[in-house]
């Protein structure tokens, strides 16, 4: 059994000097006067859109990023510090803790119902991914603990090497190790005899690894890599990539639905054009990590492409003025909060480690799936807890109602 200490409560409150220094760096930041190629038809083909970067940087340095209504938060020119202190106040509404487990300082936030529920709440551990952070769960978790039937408690840890958790203590630390630590957090530290797991991106892998522990009764994910496809599909996709002949478009003849074919085409596009970040973070994490470590605008530029590509284009952060989905929390502010966490905690370089250390980890053995619940949505994206928190709440509630073990009478 993993060794664990006693949790200590903490407050999110970064030093004044760090915020002053950040403001100075943002004020001094310079961007190119024109795009990398003028007259680009589709800026996405070249990476981060300079127009997006200019907008985010301007609102960041002035301290008034936009909310889900695409309205500026606060007066223009109030600065980073005033805005960030208001963010910290929101983040501290639910308590934060740190605890030592296996040489890792694990940070977690604990969401509980404000009123005692009629039945014992279901403990749920939410695991984030990259470039996410514990903050992406805030809206989802706060809404979920308001549910009464069933009731929930939500534990949101920061992965080792992310946010307020310390970096892994040794070389070769994989997500299986993270899952073991998180299981200890839920059982030995918090005392739960049974819990459920939820996650996306790396959080999917962590949740899948948690599911092997007896205390983890069910797990839910909003990220489903195409690992359940027949094995012959992978060679077909490789041939398509090398030959240019679009075999994937004809899979409908073999019984695949239009939606499945569309998803495969998006996967193909990602493999061809969208995974450059993965290759460098997998192969040389320190090189990029050190380059971005003290560069807040660099971190923003590195993240923006991913947030835009992986989110629903109708989200407030990237939709046309007045056309953003107001139910989404994928906003300018939420993106900048995420960037702030990486910069202020100095964790950008260590956040790349799962790509390097877990590269040999087989994602999911196809034969081990026990798929009992599946749902698709018309709206949403990769960051489900931000992009459509209410839909994720409803999915988790329905899933738990159907599959959480009932007490034996």
TrEMBL record:
Q: Which GO terms describe its biological process?
A: epoxide metabolic process
Q: Which domain of life is it from?
A: Eukaryota
Name the SUPFAM superfamilies for this protein.
Answer: alpha/beta-Hydrolases
> Matching Pfam families, A to Z?
EHN (PF06441)
- The record places domain Epoxide hydrolase N-terminal at 8-136
Q: Name one GO molecular function term.
A: epoxide hydrolase activity
Which keywords describe this protein according to UniProt? Aromatic hydrocarbons catabolism, Hydrolase
Q: PANTHER family in the record, alphabetically?
A: EPOXIDE HYDROLASE, EPOXIDE HYDROLASE 1-RELATED
**Protein family per UniProt:** Belongs to the peptidase S33 family.
| Name of the protein | Related to Epoxide hydrolase 1
Task: Tell me what organism the protein belongs to.
Answer: Pseudozyma flocculosa
């Amino acid at each position: 059994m993993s060794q664990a200490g006693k949790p200590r409560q903490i407050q999110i409150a970064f030093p004044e000097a760090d915020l002053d220094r950040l403001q100075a760096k943002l004020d001094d930041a310079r961007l190119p006067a024109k795009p990398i190629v003028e007259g680009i038809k589709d800026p996405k083909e070249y990476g981060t859109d300079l127009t997006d970067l200019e907008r985010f940087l301007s609102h960041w340095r002035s301290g008034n990023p936009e909310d889900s209504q695409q309205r500026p938060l606060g007066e223009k020119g109030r600065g980073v510090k005033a805005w960030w202190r208001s963010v910290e106040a929101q983040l501290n509404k639910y308590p934060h803790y740190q605890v030592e487990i296996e040489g890792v300082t694990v940070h977690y936030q604990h969401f509980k119902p404000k009123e005692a529920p009629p039945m014992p709440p279901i403990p749920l551990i939410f695991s984030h991914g990259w470039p996410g952070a514990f903050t992406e769960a805030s809206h989802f978790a706060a809404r979920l603990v308001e549910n009464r039937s069933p009731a929930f408690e939500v534990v949101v840890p920061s992965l080792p090497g992310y946010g307020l958790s310390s970096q892994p203590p040794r070389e070769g630390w994989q997500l299986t190790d993270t899952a073991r630590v998180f299981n200890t957090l839920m059982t030995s530290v918090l005392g739960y005899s049974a819990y459920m797991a939820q996650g996306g991106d790396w959080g999917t892998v962590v949740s899948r690894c948690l599911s092997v522990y007896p205390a983890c009764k069910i797990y839910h994910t909003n990220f489903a890599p195409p690992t359940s496809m027949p094995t012959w599909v992978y060679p077909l996709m490789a041939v398509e990539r090398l030959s240019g002949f679009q075999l994937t478009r004809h899979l409908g003849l073999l019984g695949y639905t239009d939606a499945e074919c569309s998803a495969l085409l998006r996967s193909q596009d990602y493999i061809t054009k969208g995974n450059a970040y993965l290759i460098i973070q997998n192969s040389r994490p320190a090189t990029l990590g050190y380059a971005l470590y003290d560069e807040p605008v660099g971190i923003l530029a590195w993240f923006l492409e991913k947030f835009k590509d992986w989110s629903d284009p109708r989200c407030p952060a990237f939709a046309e003025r007045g056309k953003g989905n107001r139910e989404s929390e994928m906003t300018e502010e939420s993106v900048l909060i995420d960037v702030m966490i990486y910069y202020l905690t100095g964790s950008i370089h260590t956040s790349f480690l799962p790509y390097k250390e877990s590269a040999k980890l087989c994602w999911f053995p196809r034969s081990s799936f026990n798929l009992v619940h599946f749902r698709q949505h018309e709206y949403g994206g990769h960051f489900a807890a931000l992009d459509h928190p209410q839909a994720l709440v409803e999915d988790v509630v329905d899933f738990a109602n159907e599959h959480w073990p009932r007490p034996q009478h």
